[in-house]
Amino acid sequence: MFTQSGEWVIISRPRIRIDFFKSLRFLLFILIIIVGMIPSIVIMEGCSYFYRKDSVEEKLNNLSAQANILAYQLNEEYLKVPYDQAIDEEISSVSSALNTRVMIIDSDYKVVKDTYLLDNGKYMVSPIVINSINNKSTQTYDQKQKYMEVTSIIKSEDGDRLVGLVILYASTEDLESLVHSLNSKILLVEVICFIVLIVVSFYLSWILTRPFTKMTSSIDEMSDGFFTEDIEFKSYLETEQMAMAFNKMLSKMRSLDESRQEFVSNVSHELKTPITSMKVLADSLLVQEDVPIETYKEFMSDIADEIERENKIITDLLALVKLDKSSSDLNIAPVIINDLIELILKRLRPIAAKRNIELVFESFRPVTAEVDDVKLTLAISNLVENAIKYNVDNGYVHVSLNADHQYFYVKVSDSGIGIPEESIDHIYERFYRVDKSHSRQIGGTGLGLSITRNAVLMHRGAIKVYSRENEGTTFNVRIPILYQIEAGGKV
């Protein structure tokens, strides 16, 4: 195109190279041609074959009938003296009408009469003559030499002896000419059918693959960012199933995109809030003159609290990012789960003691499992710490450990404030808080349960929650004793 300055500007567009010979359209095109041509070729060739066969049989039968008539009319006297006007006229008539060579041979293999006048008086000893005299009438067709031959035996008047033989030779060039003409017409029809079939195949392959082309076009548009609407294809069951599967994936992508946007927004808000508070406190100190030492300490204490809160958010975010990585980052090793939970509770007992919350651990059996102790510690610590933070004064937190042959189970129950029913489905969302004002008072970041859930899922485990408002909450964690990788491994 031209620019305003009159210079040429070449705009290059990315092209998608499609190997046509590997496409479904080409395969359908070839398949339709094959399916269409094979029956037509079989039918055409069958027509030619049966036409030739029927024509040959008809001519052989006609020659045999004429040979039998002549053999019936001939007698032993004619074989000795081959002069009978009526019989000669009949032989000539048959020879002319059927365009055949008529030969009459006696029992001594001597040619009594030859309509072609070539072998009169000669002896003819050939396999067909010998077989016919010793056996019965025969029919022979030689397609390569283009002739047919029929024989009929001449019997004595009493019918007990064979006295001679009638042989009819006929050329099949006229028959072969008709068959060749028919084959030429069949070939022409096959060529026309092939051309028509190519056009029909191309059209049908284009029609049949058009839904897939539309689907590809829709997916290309979505890859450019236009994925606000679902795709619908009701042409075939397969395309409907593909569209349903793609829409399902698209829904997850939308949800993931919305979650990402919400996460970025929440992170920005959560990180900005402590900074805003610190700036307000610092500005308050700067605008005041002769600030009392007590006020200065109070403001600095508040700033230190906000810094600590900012540090907790950043620490939890880093932990969450690490847990979002693949399970190959796990450092799996045999760990005594009883000792791990005891260590966690020992660290958290001082926090529980401040509010006189009873922290109880109940172990039903020794459990050793293949886990990443750092990540599992983080998960269980968050559950127990939340149970303490969102508890009531003088309450309790009960932690139990049990196992079977396949899984071990950690149960964390508390007597706390509980979770409203409408919030249970959202508690694992990042930065989600049931009661934001209360959570800020106790220092929650809204990331603990998301971290816990990710850590449990990385161990191929599951987590469930049961809660009633103002009655308490129970978390049940189930994790395989033997770690199993995706591609197969330990069971």
TrEMBL record:
Membrane topology: Multi-pass membrane protein
GO cellular component: plasma membrane
One Pfam entry name: HATPase_c
Keywords, ordered alphabetically: ATP-binding, Cell membrane, Kinase, Membrane, Nucleotide-binding, Phosphoprotein, Transferase, Transmembrane, Transmembrane helix, Two-component regulatory system
Main location: membrane
EC number(s) from the headed UniProt entry: 2.7.13.3
CDD domains, per database record: HAMP, HATPase, HisKA
Membrane-crossing residue ranges in chain numbering: 26-51, 186-208
Catalytic activity: ATP + protein L-histidine = ADP + protein N-phospho-L-histidine
Subcellular location: Cell membrane
GO MF term list: ATP binding; phosphorelay sensor kinase activity
Residue ranges occupied by any Histidine kinase domain in the UniProt entry: 266-483
HAMP domain ranges (all copies): 206-258
Gene3D superfamilies, alphabetized: 1.10.287.130, 6.10.340.10, Histidine kinase-like ATPase, C-terminal domain (3.30.565.10)
Annotated protein name in UniProt: histidine kinase
